[in-house]
Amino acid sequence: MKGMRVAFSVRSLSASHALEKLRRAGIPVLSCRAPEKNVLELEIRRKDAKKSFAILRGSCYNIENVRPVGLTRLLAWAAEAAGLLLGILFFAAAVLFSESRVLLVKVEGSGACYEREVRAILRDCGVREFSAMPEDTGEIAARILALPRTEFCALSKRGGILTVNVQCTDSEQPIAVMPLVSTVSGRLVELVVISGTPRKQVGEEVRAGEVLVEACTEFGPALVMARAVIEDTITAEYALPEEEARAQAFLDFGELSDLHIDKTETGWRIEGKKRTVLSLNL
Questions:
Q1: Fewer CB in 10 Å around end: N or C, the chain?
Q2: Mean of the pLDDT values across residues 11-18?
Q3: Whole-number Å distance between alpha carbons of 5 and 123
């Protein structure tokens, strides 16, 4: 390559004759300078260096200050600095990774007592160690604000640290840790558990007084945050005209689905399915 060159100094009482020796050997000298008496500074192509040094040293010339120039110098520096360059690239990649990923989660504020619940919400929304931070944190904030007595929530990320600031009202009053218990008998048709341990599954029959969600996890006692829907069949007879019987059933049981109305000797029998919604801290 044209840019691959080597510069060096020749010191001798007959330094000027070095040019003639190289010319006779067919080695082109790209540049020549005499900075002082009996000293020549020469520049040749890198591919000719080994042959040139052998010729000159064989003629008792002292060769000094050998150094690469041009592209040769750049390649030599790159080889020496390879470790440094790799280190810089690795450091830059690590910084970019830490800026885009969640490496640590901190829960602060008067609502720090909800740390376990906050971490569960984050995991449920896909935020965990080494995960990317979601662009929209609205769902996370909304679910945290749904915790009892929570009035403020803010998420901020600096470097790889995600800080969740949660503030609660009446923070000095303790929250009762209690299970979600069914108040009616029927079939469990819906169960949503944010925190706690479910004891029943959707589709199972439950009785009034049975525990649906226990106030604990594998790590110990826990605040229950859960919602359940229980469906049971209602049958009632009213000694009233049809429209009045319908109205009275609505007052007694609320809105019924799969409604059936049959005429009886004394009035109307109304049968339907009633859904009871039970919720604790949700």
A1: N
A2: 78
A3: 61
